[in-house]
Amino acid sequence: MRRYFGRKLAIYALTFVVAVTLNWIIPRFMPGDPVLRMLTRTSVSNPEAIAPMRAYYENVFGLDVPLWKQYVNYWVELFQGNLGVSVWLFPAPVADVILHAVPYTLALLLPSILLSWWAGNKVGALAARSTWLDNTALPVSYALTATPYMWLGILLAWGLGIVAGVFPVAGGYSFELRPDWSWVFVGSLALHWFLPFLSLFLVAFGGWAIGMRNLIIYELEADYASYLAALGAPRRLIRRYAFRNALLPQITGLALQLGVLVSGALVTEIVFAYPGLGHLILQAIQNQDFFLLQGAFLFIVIGVLVANFVIDIVYVLVDPRTRTGMQGAA
Amino acid sequence: MTEPGQLTDTDHVAAPGVPALAEPVVSLAGRRRETLHFALRNKKVVGALVVISGFLVLGLVAPLFTDHGPNEYVGPPAAGPSADYWFGTTTFGQDVFLQFANGIRSTFVVGLLGGGLAALIGMTVGFVAGYRGGLVDELLNMLTNIVLVLPALAVLIILHAYVGVTSVPMQAVFIGLFSWPWVARAVRAQTFSLRSREFVDLARLSGMRPLAVIRREIAPNMSSYLFMTFILLFGGSVLMAATLDFIGLGPTDAISLGLMMNSAVHWSALHLGLWWWFVPPGAAITAIVGALYVMNVGLDEVFNPKLREM
Amino acid sequence: MTLQVDDLRVCYRTLMGEVRALDGVSFTVADGEIMGVVGESGCGKSTLGKSLVRLDNRMKHVGGTVTVDGEPLPIADDRAMNRFRFTSVSIIPQYAMSALNPTRRIGRLVADLLDAHGMSYAATRPELVRRLALVGLPETVLDSYPIELSGGMKQRVVLVLSTLRDPALLVADEVTSALDVSTQRAVAQTLVEFRDRGYVRGMLVVTHDISLVYQIADTIMVMYAGRLAEKAPSDVVVTEPLHPYTQLLIGALPEVGARFSERRLTGIPGRPPGLRNPPQGCRFRARCPLAFDKCAEQPPFVEVAENHQVACWKAGS
């Protein structure tokens, strides 16, 4: 068990190092000297930002310092939580800006991922046994999973937001309100949250439903299912086993889909001008705020790595095969 | 079960419990013909092919009938669909249909190039790791795992932002570079299981070089799987490109379906009610990617006789 | 009489048409009898074994009847068969190594199964533990996951589980083919012991390994291309086979057919005919060294000596 997690953690640590290194290398070594380009561009868009930016640059990318020193400096700054200063929201530190946005992104991502996973698995399992449901839910699921996240978001915003006027289509809460914990504010939060959540939920739901439906059919053909049937076990018992076993690859699938789900959340936030990381990224791109962009990148990587690790732990808890294999009992 | 041909043959056509002993050994060409036969009779495959080739023809042919570029201001601003402008015009008077047709072109370029590159890298890494094993496998596996957990979109955003993507092929290459890991994983696992099979041993014993063994013995036995992988990668690349374009990191010298949606949202098409601006591009992506997925299901039924309808 | 099979016909549905895997098979298994069913791959022996317990969704019952203890089995009706499975007919499948749900502890699996049959696990457990001990398994296997057991252990668990309710008939389908030689013998002996203790009354041991079945079976039935070729007491089949196919089969064995032991093991030249469009007459004709004109007509499966039946024109004369 320790070896298994050790291995996993090693991979995640390495991935983090790679991500940080990429973050350092890309601006530094890309053709056309993006660092220079960045400095000249930002000087136009926000004159005040130049001094602190130059200071940060001198330290991290200081051209008179040897390369390895620049690299080390970058790590040192990183561990001090210094990701630079935002140009767009000058003089706010990038880390603060991002920490402000993260709760919104998590509030979209966590419920939509978990609920779509749960509902998709349920419906997929039902579709595997009902021809009627198979013929209706399956085509819908294929259409949903092929839909680009932002398009479904656009359609929902237009249909339910603008045409029907039921939901607001921009922002995290009504702009007349100031953030506090009053019912009015929480209600406004929920109202603004619903459509982006719904579009994320729907697209992800399609994928899970298809996955479960195919997995369960595969499981129902497995040897253990045939043996149980040969021993006169009722379909109910066999289906229960098949469902439980089919859930395991769906958990792995969750880890594999994380990247896609996160990117879905980013673009959905852009559609709804929802104040999470996706919105920040858009602003960073439009304002040439590269520190903010890089900071957001690191946060996303860290988030995905943490989520991966959580899924690893869950998997070990639910699949006896990994547990026994790790203890070397076999 | 001693001849190599027979082994693959039984894998392919036999119903369980009825070994293909009774069948004459089917040649590779015969198998291909049989596959084609079933593929053309499979409604899912044929339907998907019709949808995809319809879009492909539209993307290839429609732009030929006009002298205007997709971003030129040719008509009245914000006009709805009409005989002159089938999909209406943008707030600036650009022809949405023209943009749409050109965008489909870009979509196919991204899918083919990005999916193709990802398939190539994934297969190479997977074959080599699975066939060589040992340290090579350890290293490649580690690389695969790292790229696998690294959120591709985030990396691509940084790359696009700094490097500045100018053309659709360039974008496709970037996407391909970061979407191969799951292919490598799957191919590695399959190669592992195939390499210990009799006919591969036979080839190895007879002094075939590793590359030749992979190319002549292992790859053909996975060809159906590899083809289906490519289809999924194609769809994945299309969605990824649409996402990047929508964020505003698309190619600067071309139009794409994602860029259309980006402009539509950016210039308040939703509030102005210009639905013809943002509905077609998303619908086209959904239709193309959906058709690819359905084709994959159909091909699965064709390649995997167990799933064929009886 | 435990089992009576009359003119059983079962086919596989494939895209190219129906494959008649079992084409008119009739025989009986007496109380306490172990019958070996042998033949090349694809001769229908596994199909025979499976169709007595459960037709999978590619198999179709075409004709014929099966009775166990005088009660007809509704083999074409999957649901109605559930009443007979486990209690009256049972099977040790070919895939015994993977027959247990990998994510369920074995004890829980047995409990679920008994529960589904309306039986109490707690009440059955002592007997279960006794039988596990009989095959050399400790009680702790009930707390294990299948992955924690070796292949041979899983095989024995399946053997115990399949026979837990003392079925009238047990089909053992290629139970030894995945095991090494010493384990094979042990499993074969266990089958005999289970019969002797009355855990199973009749047994159909389906295998391609005549030398193994010779050690444990009372009767051996040889199948060829979906039909019965020869059936006789084990000694008779091995020492005085009458059907040319049986003779060649025995000849291909290094151990039992001592006369041919120094000859290289070549098997029987040629292949069995395809069963989609089987040839008229004797199906072994094309490979038979003794074939003559009359073989164009199908030879009947007749008793040529006491308890010795053969389907060959040459055998009767």
UniProtKB/TrEMBL annotation, chain A:
Bilayer topology: Multi-pass membrane protein
* InterPro entries (UniProt xref): MetI-like, MetI-like_sf
Pfam families hit by this protein: BPD_transp_1
Kindly list the residue ranges recorded as spanning the membrane. 9-26, 97-119, 149-171, 183-209, 254-277, 297-318
Question: What biological processes does GO assign it?
Answer: transmembrane transport
Q: Name one GO cellular component term.
A: plasma membrane
Determine the domain of life of the protein's source: Bacteria
> What residues does the ABC transmembrane type-1 domain cover?
102-311
Question: Where located?
Answer: Cell membrane; Membrane
Task: Print the keywords alphabetically.
Answer: Membrane, Transmembrane, Transmembrane helix, Transport
The text of the family note is: Belongs to the binding-protein-dependent transport system permease family.
- The name under which this protein is listed is Peptide/nickel transport system permease protein
The record lists the lineage as: Bacteria, Bacillati, Actinomycetota, Actinomycetes, Micromonosporales
UniProtKB/TrEMBL annotation, chain B:
Asked if the keyword Nucleotide-binding belongs to this entry, the reply reads: no
Query: What's one Pfam family the UniProt record gives for this protein?
Result: BPD_transp_1
Q: Which top-level group of life is the source organism from?
A: Bacteria
Taking the first listed entry, what is the main subcellular location of this protein, grouped into a coarse class?
membrane
Q: Where in the cell is it found?
A: Cell membrane
Keyword Zinc-finger assigned: no
ABC transmembrane type-1 domain segment(s): 104-296
Query: Keyword annotations for this protein?
Result: Cell membrane, Membrane, Transmembrane, Transmembrane helix, Transport
In Gene Ontology terms, what is one molecular function of this protein? dipeptide transmembrane transporter activity
Q: Name the membrane topology term.
A: Multi-pass membrane protein
Q: Where are the transmembrane segments?
A: 45-65, 108-131, 143-162, 168-187, 225-249, 274-299
- Example of a GO cellular component annotation carried by this entry: plasma membrane
What family does the database annotate? Answer: Belongs to the binding-protein-dependent transport system permease family.
**Name of protein:** Peptide/nickel transport system permease protein
Q: Which organism is it from?
A: Asanoa hainanensis
From TrEMBL, chain C:
Record's keyword annotation contains Manganese: no
Q: Which UniProt keywords apply?
A: ATP-binding, Nucleotide-binding, Transport
Q: Name one Pfam family in it.
A: oligo_HPY
Molecular function terms, GO-annotated: ATP binding; ATP hydrolysis activity
> Under what name is this protein listed?
Peptide/nickel transport system ATP-binding protein
Where is the chain membrane-spanning?
none
Domain (ABC transporter) ranges:
3-250
GO BP terms? peptide transport
The record's listing under NCBIfam families reads: oligo_HPY (TIGR01727)
